[in-house]
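call fold(seq) -> C-alpha cells
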Amino acid sequence: MKNHSKCSMLIGIDGLGGSGKTMYAYKLQQQLEGSVILHLDDFVHKKEVRYNENYEEWYCYYHLQWRYDYLIQKLLLPLKSGLDVNETIEVYNRETDSYILREIEIPAGTTVIVEGVFLQRPELRPYFEIVVYLELDQETRLKRITDRDIYMGNKKEIALKYDQRYFPAEEKYIEQCNPLALADIVENEVKEGLV
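ret:
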C-alpha cells in the first residue's frame, strides 16, 4: 500500500513493555512498500534527566524518559504537515548514554511506522492516523522482558526494576489515557499468533 497524499501517513504501534511492538512494526513494514520505522527508544533523555533522584522511578519513566518535543519538532510535525524530512538528528546510544548523529531522509507521502510505549498520550496521539495497540498480559510480558533485557541484570533484578519503575508508569498510562479505548486497532499477539 502506498500513500498517495502529500502528507505522510503516521501509524503508531503502541503497547506496554514486552508486548511485541518492534517485531510487529517490522512485520507491518514488510507489508507496506517503502515504509519507514521510527523507534521511540531512539528519542530518550540521557540518564541524568530520566533518572532524576528528586522523583519516584515510575514518575521519571512516565514524565521524563522521552524527548517528545524533539521528536515532534524534527519528525512528526514536518511529516504530518506534508514536508520532506532531510535532517541530521540525534538518536540515543544506550551503551554510551549519549547522542549520535544520524542522517534521516523521509520524503513527504511516506508511510511512517512509529513504535514505542505511551504513544497515545495527548502530546503524541494527534500525529497518528492509525494506532495499533498490542495487548498482552503482564505475566507473558515479564517473561519476554527478563529474557530480552539482560543488560539490566539477572531476572530477579529485572523484575524488581519493572515493579518499581515500568509497571507503575504503565498503570498511570492506562488510567490517564485508556489506550485500549483510544486505539484504532487492538491486537493480542498471543491470541492472533503474530509472534
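Residues 37 and 144 are 22 Å apart (CA to CA).
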